[in-house]
Amino acid sequence: MNTSKVWYVTGASQGLGLMLVKQLLESGYRVAATSRHAQKLQDAVGVIDGDRFLPLAVDLNNTDCVDESIGQTLGAFGRIDVVVNNAGYGMAGTVEETGAEEIRKIFDVNVLAVINVVKSVLPVLRKQGSGYIINMGSVAGFAGAPGWSVYAATKAAVAAFSEVLALDVKEFGIKVTVVEPAGFRTGFLEQNSLAYVESRIDGYQAVKETQQRYLATSGQQAGDPVKASAILIELAASDQPPLHLYLGQDAYKRASGKLAAMTTELEAWKATTISADYQ
């Protein structure tokens, strides 16, 4: 395995991002990692190795700040081989009870920050003629659950962005994967990682029941972040990584179930679909 690769990982002070950074450093990789607070990141990683680890305080919605972090990474390591857009958080609640500012904020963090990082790093990867971009999506972006409409919308946007980005950059030797996990024990359902609005409106039973069921699983999710981190490292060593990678048995069941339902519906309405064309 080539451990000379340089990784740039966002949202690295907790959860899957932190686990990934620790595994990368243990395996001998060079890592630039971002968080809103560099010292918090440094303390969480617990490694003092200026030769291989560069903690960066970055506002991912400030393009100048993102550009500066890419420049700092190049200054420290000379190149960037793998980019992991991991920063993000969840939002649960009915759309009519979610404030407009909260909706804008989650799109800023979950979608626009991903685009900002990609825009900044692409000139570097194009010049190198190589590179690998991993965008962290969610199975919710393809097969969502009641009460997660806004969050699902952000992750669907990440998936669509990744799909077309892969087509755009293929000629430059740059690969793209959108990773779409189900529930993992990363603290995702804890207060600092989830914007949760409890519904006060009569009805919305599917939303309320789903929310309570999900919140009750906090810390007991089936997904293992240690195994997920190892999979991401394996992906970067692959000559032909997948465009979509679902992680976890629940993700597989939800995605395969929706694919089957979509195929059935598509065929049932085929005549109507094609009747819209000029004959």
Automatic annotation (TrEMBL):
Belongs to the short-chain dehydrogenases/reductases (SDR) family. It comes from the Bacteria. It comes from Paraflavitalea soli. GO terms for molecular function: oxidoreductase activity. Keywords: Oxidoreductase. SUPFAM superfamilies: NAD(P)-binding Rossmann-fold domains. InterPro entries: NAD(P)-bd_dom_sf, Sc_DH/Rdtase_CS, SDR_fam, SDR_oxidoreductase. It holds the Pfam family adh_short. This is SDR family NAD(P)-dependent oxidoreductase.
